[in-house]
């Protein structure tokens, strides 16, 4: 029974981690076309780093959780675009946009969404199993 409860904890931690990932992708997509006057001010894409955490109460490793270890910024240089009439153009007429691939971000969002849905499904199946186990005990 405790393994079933640890499954809830593992899935809940994965849901939380995927939620952070989805929010990060949404931020990247929202800022994909933002302009800056110089490369240092340009938005940098962010990526979420996950880490598995072993359950100290169960050292055999059968129960792990997922946590967000951190969020990193891309080191890719922003793209310079010659747009002399843009309000944020520098004195040479250039603006700088982040090096964000919308296609990659959409694929990342789909992956995070599917992972989220899979963990919801695991929790729902676990809940049903727990409910049936309790019904057997009542019979």
UniProtKB/TrEMBL annotation:
The organism's taxonomic lineage, starting at the top: Bacteria, Pseudomonadati, Pseudomonadota, Gammaproteobacteria, Chromatiales
Annotated InterPro entries: Flag_bb_rod_N, Flagellar_basal_body_rod_CS, Flg_bb/hook_C_dom, FlgC
Pfam families the UniProt entry points to: Flg_bb_rod (PF00460), Flg_bbr_C (PF06429)
**Gene Ontology CC entries for this record:** bacterial-type flagellum basal body, rod
Give compartment(s). Bacterial flagellum basal body
Which parts of the sequence belong to the Flagellar basal-body/hook protein C-terminal domain? 93-136
Q: From which source organism is this entry?
A: Thioalkalivibrio versutus
Q: Name one GO biological process term.
A: bacterial-type flagellum-dependent swarming motility
The UniProt similarity line reads:
Belongs to the flagella basal body rod proteins family.
Domain Flagellar basal body rod protein N-terminal per the UniProt entry, residue ranges: 8-34
Quaternary structure annotation from Swiss-Prot or TrEMBL: The basal body constitutes a major portion of the flagellar organelle and consists of four rings (L,P,S, and M) mounted on a central rod. The rod consists of about 26 subunits of FlgG in the distal portion, and FlgB, FlgC and FlgF are thought to build up the proximal portion of the rod with about 6 subunits each.
Q: What is this protein called?
A: Flagellar basal-body rod protein FlgC
Q: Which UniProt keywords apply?
A: Bacterial flagellum, Cell projection, Cilium, Flagellum
The cross-references to PROSITE patterns, in alphabetical order and at most eight, read: FLAGELLA_BB_ROD
